[in-house]
Amino acid sequence: MTRPLIAIPARFSATASALRYAAEVNARALVEAVWRAGGEPAGIHPADTGTAARLARFDGVLLPGGGDLAPSRYGATGTHDTVYDVDTLQDTFDLDVARHALESGLPLLAVCRGLQVVNVALGGTLEQDMGGPEREHRHLVHPVTLEPGSLVARAVGAEKTDASCYHHQRVDRLGTGLHVTARAADGTAEALELPGADGWFTAVQWHPEDTAHEDPAQQGLFDALVRAATR
Fold first, then answer.
1. CATH of the domain at 96
2. 165 is a catalytic site residue
3. Is 90 exceeded by the pLDDT of residue 231?
4. What GO MF terms are annotated (predicted)?
């Protein structure tokens, strides 16, 4: 059986130990989670033209984590000191990927930055920095409560899960049509869905790839994406 082809937009990296040049990369844990699920992970080069035609050959999309979106993308007039790794081409490409995947019904799983990209693509905004230690969501595994019956809850197989987080931003105003389907104890939106979407779609603010190799609940998100891409 041919593995469904899952597009994963590459991330720019200034260095890579095995190469002599800057690189375009994806996290190995993310790629391995797609492979375990039965998918064929394929990194795709960020470019500012032809996104719809390029995605047409794929069966699903995984929009991964990465640096921050430029605050101007969601109408902010200033930039917080903690905003990092902004790249104009990366922003343009990721936003195009999110819009085209949702418009075409292509199965889409968005992770961390990916969730934020989807929210901004649909007209939402972000809180540029969540604040001090009491609101810290970096290097943290914490419980998340999932909405019963939601796609994320069905994928995880539970209504609570332990989520591995690494983010300093979060959703402020929701994008058009989006619905929060998971929250942390402090109220942070941890998952988003789009009721009535043409294709399978869920977005999580955490990094399921961090623990997917040992936690079937987190691997379940990648399994659900690949199942949707197989139909």
1. 3.40.50.880
2. no
3. no
4. gamma-glutamyl-gamma-aminobutyrate hydrolase activity
Q: Tell me the pairing of strands 5-9 and 40-44.
A: parallel
Domain count, the chain: 1
Tokens of 119: 């929210």
Express each pLDDT in 89-118 by its tens digit.
999 999 999 999 999 999 999 999 999 999
Using CA atoms, how far apart are residues 152 and 174, in angstroms rounded to an integer? 18
Q: Which amino acid is at 221?
A: L
Report residue 113 as tokens: 């930055």
C-alpha–C-alpha distance, residues 51 and 106, integer Å: 13
112, 137, 167, 193: the active-site residue: 112
Ordered DSSP codes for 115-162: HHHHHHHTT--EES---SGGG-EEEEEEEEEE-TT-HHHHHHTSSEEE
Catalytic residue status for 209:
yes
